[in-house]
Amino acid sequence: MAIYIAITVLIIACPCALGLATPTAVMVGSGLAARRGILIKDAKALELSHKIKVLVFDKTGTLTVGKPQVTSYQVVSETDSQLVYLAEQESHHPLAQAVVTYLQSKIKKPNQQLSVFKDRPGLGVEAKIGKKRILIGTDRLLRLEKIDLSDNWQLKAKALQQEAQTVSFVMIDNKVVGLIGIADTLKEDAKEAVALIKALKIKTVMLTGDNKLAAQRIADQLGIDEVTAEVLPQDKADIVKKLQRENGQARVVAMVGDGINDAPALARADIGIAMGTGTDVAINTGDIVLVKGTLGKMVEAIDISRKTYGVIKQNLFWAFGYNVIGIPIAAGLLYPLTGWLLSPVIASMAMALSSTSVVLNSLRLKSSH
Predict the structure, then answer these.
(1) 3-class SS letters over 200-239
(2) 199 exposed, middle or buried (CB, 10 Å; 0-12, 13-18, 19+)?
(3) pTM to 2 decimal places
């Protein structure tokens, strides 16, 4: 009877310890991350982060500070500048707000009003003021509208783009009347964070709606492996999907972003990482939130995931180990040789020790940082 009791106790102990192995490690790992300014909303994201093979970055607000400033303004006519001010004032895009801030103290406030305004995501803005049609945006918008660009404007735009500036063309009644160069400062820790991520053998990719020259310049400064420029917001999720199955192999892809336009890509990625300084839509969509928007925290999140995964494996080893050894002994494996039998009391102690060791091993994560 004692043998049956001991075996039963150990059999009960196995699922108890196994049931604690993963949740306790994940709970402690999530708590550790929260204390480090990393909010993990989905336990699956913590378990998957150590498997990341590709990390995709948005540019504005993620790799850059997200507070662009006008560095070159080449619209000669004040009347045209007033139209630019009115059109950009209706947009909530950071680039548009940079133009509005720049013009506020440089022009007389216009008395006119817009009759039509339309945001064109990834391209720019469109407005109608009186009888004039105003377009402000990228060279891609210019091509879509089939507006000719003179050699003079091309040279000016290329010079700004080579300095990593975003160029917005000003078009009134289908004629280019000026351009605006806008620059954003790279985050102080961006280059170091990218280097640390690459040291983990993770491929880095940057997606941006910016022009190719400016995007490549920034990618070169940061050491990013691959850059895709002039991307429309709706295309970002498709690119993430393609990266997940590149070369016919399934890969874990994480996306880091901060804007409304990044939300579909954050949802599409295996792990969506949102900057805590970004929009509510991005934060709600992300599986992990970097509370202060610091890129270095992303590296910490991956490190915590790797350590948590290591502890989970150890927990499973302990949970199985006690029972793999204990059950045969309780069944009398050693009795013919030594006369030993495992008493129900010792089996109960082993059961408690099995679960306790799993919990204590998980708590070791607290002291890993």
Answers:
(1) CCCEEEEECCCCHHHHHHHHHHHCCCEEECCCCHHHHHHH
(2) exposed
(3) 0.77
Q: How far apart are CA 152 and CA 139, in angstroms?
A: 14
Q: What is the per-residue DSSP string for 260-315?
A: GGGHHHHHHSSEEEEETTS-HHHHHH-SEEETT--THHHHHHHHHHHHHHHHHHHH
Q: Find how far residue 151's CA is from the centre of its chain.
A: 39
Q: Which amino acid, one-letter code, is at 276? A: G
54 pairs with which residues across the strands? 203, 253
pLDDT in tens, 313-349: 777 776 666 666 555 555 554 445 555 555 555 555 5
155 burial level (CB within 10 Å; 0-12, 13-18, 19+)? exposed
Q: What is the dihedral of CA 46, 52, 58, 60, to 10 degrees?
A: 60
- Straight-line distance from the first to the last Cα atom of the chain, in angstroms, rounded to the nearest whole number: 49
Residues assigned a catalytic role: 58
3-state secondary structure of 123: coil
Tokens of 118: 């339309």
Query: What is 334-368 written as a DSSP string?
Result: THHHH-----HHHHHHHHHHHHHHHHHHHHGGGGG
How far is Cα 85 from Cα 336, in angstroms, rounded to an integer?
94
* Amino acid of residue 5: I
Inter-axis angle of helices 151-161 and 212-222, to 10 degrees?
20
**pLDDT tens for residues 183-224?**
888 998 899 999 999 999 999 999 988 888 888 889 999 999
